[in-house]
């Protein structure tokens, strides 16, 4: 059934030509469309859309339980008498060293090499007052490495979901006490839920983590810049890294869910980490260990721009901007995004558009990973900025021009469409190179690209790129299917089924619109 009202926030809503056509469900990533949208599609194609087919339901899959349950589904059912225990101490120490020596520790600076050793010891000291907190942190850590290092026997034997459930249970007793150890646990559980596609649950852990980092003053503290640190200085430096992790995730979660960000930039010290610009794009093995600045997911400067985009274009206050104010904001953000793009080293710099398959074969695994993250973030943010022009409708000026004005600001709509093309082309190149556990992180990108291209085709079926755009729509299912998945559950299966139905329907409607236009021309 078409939507009669929208509960989604403006950031998740689909605007085109000044009309609200629907929303992308933050829970399952599937678009839902308004009656007004259905009627507009009918007027452009001559066929009533069959989006009701997206409501398929698998009796073996309960979407609400999968998303909203506080405890993840166990990968291997446990008997009531089974007790989840930490591995032998030397195995945990080995896994910690493996993580800290990997590039993953630079992307996710979740632990400090000095502080985590003490936490690991406390996790086995039953009589320690830090025992419960340290144990929860180690279980949360194991919930992550169990999927990331499958080639290591000790990691492959870990039941990640059982470890996460144990950490969650312990954390419920620790919420009254703000500590770096508990903050690490919250962020690790947040990432565990994100990688399982449970964004709503992840956002709850994220809120806890942000409130904890505020309590610890991580949002304002000034970290030391030298390297011979006291314990307190080490804690402050690591706390600052955890703040930046919360900040990056905060801006991503806001864009993905449409919910307001938890972190208000005006209350934070947003000075970048020392030497960030000098080392952020340098291979990890070229920087002295202990002096490496974490990369974080993407680029901190891009996260700052994401925050500005969310606030300036999609907040409640932004919705009451005049057309002139909205257009000015779009132009300013576009200029800032372009300044960021050209500041990236040429080898890693996202192209303005992707006209052919990108060649990453000559890059190291590090540079390949960074290139993928930067490119997809760039195209998504470019689309997000210019898609706001869909709220802008130019009035018809029949007295002066004698013709109908196009919806929105055409140059902005063109940039949004080109960013969407680049997203799908680029993903078709790199999909098979993605880490298996990141499926739910990256499958988010094609949806907004699909909707932008679809409405662009229906608005002008005769434009120069219409035929190529239909081909991109048709190939989107193959792109999603080619993305590796570590463990296929009913959630992934149902998502791929729905997306396949959506892609087929969008492709058919696009062809009908083009055929109808050709008939009119003749």
UniProtKB/TrEMBL annotation:
The keyword Transcription applies. Pfam families: Fungal_trans. It is found in: Nucleus. The keyword Nucleus applies. One of its GO terms (cellular component) is nucleus. Residues 202-279 form the Xylanolytic transcriptional activator regulatory domain. Keywords: DNA-binding, Nucleus, Transcription, Transcription regulation. One of its GO terms (biological process) is DNA-templated transcription. InterPro entries: AtrR-like, XnlR_reg_dom. GO terms for molecular function: DNA binding; DNA-binding transcription factor activity; zinc ion binding. This is Xylanolytic transcriptional activator regulatory domain-containing protein. It comes from Metarhizium anisopliae BRIP 53293.
């Amino acid at each position: 059934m078409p939507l009669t009202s929208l509960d989604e926030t403006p950031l998740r809503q689909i605007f085109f030509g000044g009309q609200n056509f629907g929303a992308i469900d933050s829970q399952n990533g599937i678009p839902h469309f308004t009656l007004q949208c259905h009627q507009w599609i009918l007027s452009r194609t001559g066929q009533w859309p069959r989006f009701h087919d997206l409501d398929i339901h698998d009796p073996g899959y309960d979407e609400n339980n999968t998303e909203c349950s506080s405890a993840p589904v166990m990968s291997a059912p446990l008997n009531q008498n089974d007790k989840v225990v930490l591995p032998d101490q030397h195995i945990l120490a080995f896994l910690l060293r493996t993580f800290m020596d990997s590039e993953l520790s630079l992307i996710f600076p979740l632990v400090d090499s000095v502080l985590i050793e003490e936490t690991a010891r406390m996790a086995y000291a039953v009589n320690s007052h830090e025992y419960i907190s340290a144990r929860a942190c180690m279980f949360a850590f194991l919930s992550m490495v169990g999927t990331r290092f499958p080639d290591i026997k000790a990691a492959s034997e870990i039941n990640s979901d059982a470890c996460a459930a144990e950490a969650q249970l312990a954390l419920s007793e620790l919420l009254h006490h703000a500590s770096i150890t508990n903050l690490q646990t919250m962020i690790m559980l947040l990432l565990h839920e994100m990688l399982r596609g449970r964004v709503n649950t992840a956002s709850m852990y994220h809120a806890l983590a942000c409130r904890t980092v505020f309590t610890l003053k991580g949002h304002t503290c000034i970290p030391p810049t030298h390297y011979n640190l006291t314990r307190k200085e080490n804690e402050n430096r690591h706390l600052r890294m955890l703040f930046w992790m919360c900040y990056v995730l905060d801006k991503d979660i806001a864009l993905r869910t449409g919910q307001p960000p938890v972190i208000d930039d005006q209350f934070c010290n947003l000075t970048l980490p020392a030497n960030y610009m000098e080392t952020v794009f340098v291979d990890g093995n070229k920087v002295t260990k202990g002096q490496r600045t974490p990369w974080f997911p993407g680029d901190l400067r891009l996260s700052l721009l994401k925050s500005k985009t969310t606030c300036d274009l999609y907040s409640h206050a932004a919705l009451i901007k005049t057309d002139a104010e909205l257009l000015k904001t779009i132009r300013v953000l576009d200029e800032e995004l372009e300044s960021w793009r050209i500041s990236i080293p040429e080898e890693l710099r996202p192209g303005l558009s992707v006209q052919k398959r990108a060649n990453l074969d000559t890059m190291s695994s590090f540079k390949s990973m960074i290139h993928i993250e930067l490119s997809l973030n760039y195209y998504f943010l470019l689309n997000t900025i210019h898609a706001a022009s869909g709220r802008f409708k130019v009035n018809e000026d029949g007295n002066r021009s004698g013709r109908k004005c196009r919806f929105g600001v055409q140059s902005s709509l063109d940039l949004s469409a080109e960013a969407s093309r680049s997203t799908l082309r680029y993903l078709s190149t790199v999909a098979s190179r993605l880490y298996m556990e990141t499926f739910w992180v990256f499958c988010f990108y094609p949806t907004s690209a699909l909707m932008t291209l679809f409405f662009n085709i229906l608005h002008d079926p005769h434009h120069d790129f219409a035929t190529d755009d239909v081909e991109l729509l048709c190939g989107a299912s193959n792109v999603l299917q080619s993305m590796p998945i570590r463990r296929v559950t009913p959630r992934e299966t149902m998502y791929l089924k729905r997306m396949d139905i959506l892609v087929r329907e969008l492709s058919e409607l696009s062809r009908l619109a083009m055929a109808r236009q050709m008939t009119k021309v003749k």
